[in-house]
Design a protein that fits this description.
OB fold (Dihydrolipoamide Acetyltransferase, E2P); 2 domains; 249 residues; alpha/beta; 27% helix; 17% strand
Length: 249
């Protein structure tokens, strides 16, 4: 790989990082929201370094021989430029650089969530604040699960709630409403899953809003909801943030 191609790769990589972090929200499919400024800064630095290298080296290189027919400082007829090549396999780096510009990868979904089989720890029983008035009450999957497992006052009893997440098929033919949460990036994601009962499974990975009541049962067993209504919703901008469903219009 020639020097001028290396510079082009540097600029393309920086432009791709800026595209997913500054111009779009695609970066939220890789990292948490708080890391967006670091990505913007990294992309800007890569583009700046590429432009500085191009200006310093006279990009594209002038390969015309000097007027007197002699070579430059290196005696090779190329004005003393170092035309050492990098390894040929480096050309493969263009694929991830271009993919950041032209390809939008999907967020992690049902395939990842289905492979988490361990149940969360029970946790201490404690008092939760009362649920707000109104019906249904929008909750995150995490809050619904914590209240089902740990709330001494049983605030979920006889209350209709609304949850939102993506569909994860279960091995027994049922399905879960799921969210993937990240601490830093998609590589450290963990799943929060609520079993949905009384509704036909929608397509895997589709985002839905489920309205219903907590399925009765011991807190030590899996947390489930008896669905009264299931309807499709758009995928949220930040799929790794466990947010409550917005109010219906």
């Amino acid at each position: 790989m020639r020097r001028n191609v290396q510079v082009l790769l540097l600029v393309l990589s920086g432009a791709g990082v800026l595209h997913i972090s500054l111009l779009t929200d695609v970066c939220l499919r890789f990292v948490k929201e708080g890391l967006r400024p670091a990505l913007v800064l990294s992309g800007a630095v890569l583009v700046l370094l590429g432009l500085v290298a191009a200006a310093r080296d006279g990009f594209p290189y002038d390969r015309r021989p000097p007027a007197d027919g002699r070579g430059g400082a290196g005696g090779d007829g190329c004005h003393g430029h170092d035309h050492a090549r990098g390894p040929g396999i480096a050309w493969l780096l263009f694929f991830p650089a271009l993919s950041l510009l032209f390809f939008t990868p999907p967020a992690l979904g049902a395939y990842t969530a289905a492979r988490e089989t361990g149940a969360p720890s029970q946790g201490p029983v404690r008092d939760f604040p009362p649920l707000p008035e109104g019906s249904p009450v929008p909750l995150t999957l995490t809050e619904f699960q914590l209240r089902a497992r740990q709330d001494r006052s049983r605030s979920l009893e006889d209350r209709t709630v609304a949850l939102m997440g993506f569909v994860t098929p279960a091995p027994d033919g049922g399905w879960f409403l799921s969210r993937l949460l990240v601490s830093c990036c998609a590589a450290d994601s963990r799943a929060v899953k609520i079993r949905v009962r009384g509704a036909v499974p929608p397509p895997a990975d589709s985002w839905v809003r489920v309205t219903g009541r907590r399925h009765p049962g011991p807190a030590s067993r899996e947390v489930a909801i008896d669905a009264e209504m299931v309807r499709p919703v758009p995928e949220p901008v930040n799929p790794y943030q466990d947010s409550a469903p917005p109010p219906t219009r």
